[in-house]
């Protein structure tokens, strides 16, 4: 418990530093491109169009039923899930290598290493917020207007952030000790894309496969995003058992990640 409290305190005490470094990270990564930071938006948009063309246009996908007698266009259904996936994937992948790729810099600076994964996540969060603004505008243009349910979107954004940070604490520590962890994570996440309700509906499967795949915490967040934008229900209340499961899993991951990080971070510089 003490490592987790220590990590939380470090995030609060260095929050200003996290925000500054995350903005610098975002700018420096795209400084040599003519379009600059626009590439952070163009890349996911291109991917969404490709997946829509393959899974929607070519296969003539019908509208998706997200609630009884409530069908929505496949492209809108896909956009919501894939926008969240981009944030999760990029944050998790970059978070896993965030410490070992900056060990030389960290050896010369005096601030907690636990803030480094957070810097990467925040830089992706800015992009995600802008992407979600585009998604909301798209919904308004296509006639799917905002409802009171949109308020829960902020809750699910926070839930996504907490999940990614908990995972990044674990993977950034393990990747510093064993570099192959980053490559294994990259391969694993590519598989996770296809077992999450992003490109297809898991509910079309028979039990117990549906229940097994719902153990993936991404399912909870993605469905929460869709419930918020399509205005179907208060997802985190109506599915309160799933909410308890999700936060229980996040807490366990965070406690384990904090313990691992605090135990090994004093030895990180040795891996230079």
Question: Can you summarize this structure?
Answer:
The protein has 272 residues and is an all-alpha fold. The chain has twelve helices and two strands.
Low-confidence stretches: none
Number of domains as seen in the coordinates: 1
What is the number of strand segments? 2
Largest sheet: 2 strands, antiparallel
Return the string of H and E elements: HHHEEHHHHHHHHH
**First-residue to last-residue Cα separation:** 29 Å
Can you tell me about this structure?
The model has no long low-confidence stretch (mean pLDDT 85). The longest helix is centred in the middle third of the chain and has 27 residues, at 115-141. By secondary structure, the chain is an all-alpha fold. Helix 7 (152-177) runs antiparallel to helix 10 (217-230). It has helices spanning 2-13, 15-29, 39-58, 74-96, 103-106, 115-141, 152-177, 180-194, 209-213, 217-230, 235-238, 240-264, and strands spanning 64-67, 70-72. The protein has one domain. A two-stranded antiparallel ribbon has the order 1-2. The protein starts with a helix and ends in an 8-residue tail after the last helix. The radius of gyration is 19 Å and the shape is globular. A hairpin with a 2-residue loop joins strand 1 and strand 2 (70-72).
Characteristic terms for this protein:
single chain, 272 residues, mainly alpha, two-stranded antiparallel ribbon, 12 helices, 70% helix, 3% strand, globular
How are the elements arranged and paired?
Elements: H1 2-13, H2 15-29, H3 39-58, E1 64-67, E2 70-72, H4 74-96, H5 103-106, H6 115-141, H7 152-177, H8 180-194, H9 209-213, H10 217-230, H11 235-238, H12 240-264
Antiparallel strand pairs: 1-2
Helix pairs in contact: 1-12, 2-6, 3-4, 4-6, 4-7, 4-8, 4-10, 6-7, 7-8, 7-10, 7-12
């Amino acid at each position: 418990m003490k490592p987790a409290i220590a990590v939380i305190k470090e995030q609060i005490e260095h929050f200003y530093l996290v925000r500054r470094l995350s903005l610098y990270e975002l700018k420096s990564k795209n400084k040599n491109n003519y379009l600059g930071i626009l590439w952070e938006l163009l890349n996911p948009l291109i991917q969404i169009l490709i997946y829509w063309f393959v899974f929607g246009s070519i296969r003539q996908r019908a509208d998706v039923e997200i609630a009884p007698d409530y069908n929505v266009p496949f492209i809108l259904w896909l956009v919501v899930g894939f926008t969240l996936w981009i944030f999760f994937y990029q944050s998790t992948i970059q978070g896993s290598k965030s410490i070992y790729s900056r060990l030389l810099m960290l050896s010369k600076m005096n601030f907690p290493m636990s803030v480094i994964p957070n810097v990467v996540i925040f830089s992706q969060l800015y992009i995600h917020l802008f992407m979600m603004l585009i998604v909301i505008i798209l919904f308004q243009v296509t006639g799917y207007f905002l409802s009171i349910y949109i308020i829960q979107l902020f809750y699910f954004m926070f839930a996504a952030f907490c999940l990614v940070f908990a995972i990044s604490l674990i993977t950034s520590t393990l990747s510093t000790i064993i570099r192959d962890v980053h490559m294994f994570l990259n391969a694993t996440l590519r598989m996770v894309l296809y077992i999450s309700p992003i490109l297809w509906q898991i509910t079309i499967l028979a039990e117990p496969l549906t229940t097994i795949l719902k153990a993936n915490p991404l399912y909870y967040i993605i469905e929460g995003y869709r419930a918020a934008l399509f205005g179907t229900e208060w997802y985190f209340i109506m599915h309160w058992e799933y909410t308890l499961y999700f936060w229980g899993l996040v807490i366990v991951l965070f406690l384990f990640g904090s313990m691992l990080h605090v135990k090994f971070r004093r030895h990180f510089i040795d891996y230079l």
